[in-house]
Amino acid sequence: MISLEFLVTSLVVVVTPGTGVLLTVSTALSQGRLAGVYAAMGCTLGILPHMLAAGLGLAAAMHAGSLAFQALKVLGVLYLLYLAVLTWRDRTAFTVDEARPPVRVWSLVTKAILLNSLNPKLSLFFLAFLPQFMDASAAQPLVAFGVLSAVFMTMTLAVFVGYGMLAHGFRSIVIQTPTVQAGLRKSFAVAFVFMAARLAWTEGTP
């Protein structure tokens, strides 16, 4: 059921930087290793709504109805722009300060969940990608779909945590002066705007 082709293709998809990777890396850089792990967990959990919707056929109905797809896309774009504004205005971000307040776990996880939950490109992915690796003659197609989805989510978590660890490893190196801190903060804010623009151009068909 789980082929090498599926694993390799999934890895390529997961490793390719997107909004989840951007949030995880920026969080690990600005708040530390543990915060990066929580962001990765939230992004992974944000896949669940799309997986369940696709498995139950709701995603197909959503994409058949352009209005529903466009509504979700608009919400996703607005949320990315909201994150861009927050990042731009947070002048305490990307500062190496051991006295920083504790990580707000639920706030961070919720932010990451919302980020992926409001990304209609994920439901497109589950509709167009996973079925290619399913056996059409499988006795329980939903079970097969669930297994492949679980493997994909596990890979997502592992890769995102890896991105976070890598970012944290360079944290003390790349964040040395107020100028660098401001540059990183503004760069990530602009990156969120870029992701919002790219999402806005997403078509409603797989």
What's this, in brief?
The chain is mostly helical and 206 residues long. It has helices spanning 4-15, 19-31, 33-45, 48-55, 58-64, 66-89, 105-117, 120-128, 141-169, 171-174, 178-200.
Provide structural commentary.
This protein has one domain (4-90, 99-200). The longest helix has 29 residues, at 141-169. It contains eleven helices and no strands. Helices cover 75% and strands 0% of the residues. Helix 2 (19-31) packs parallel to helix 9 and helix 3 runs parallel beside helix 7.
Largest sheet: none
- Shape from CA axes? globular
Number of domains: 1
Class from helix and strand fractions: mainly alpha
Calculate Rg over CA atoms: 18 Å
Number of strands: 0
Helical proportion, percent range: over 70%
Order of helices and strands: HHHHHHHHHHH
- In round numbers, the mean pLDDT is 81
Number of helices: 11
What is the rounded distance between the termini?
A: 23 Å
Model regions low in confidence, pLDDT < 50 over at least 5 residues: none
Share of β-strand residues: under 5%
Keywords:
globular, mainly alpha, 75% helix, 206 residues
Give the secondary structure arrangement, pairings included:
Layout: H1 4-15, H2 19-31, H3 33-45, H4 48-55, H5 58-64, H6 66-89, H7 105-117, H8 120-128, H9 141-169, H10 171-174, H11 178-200
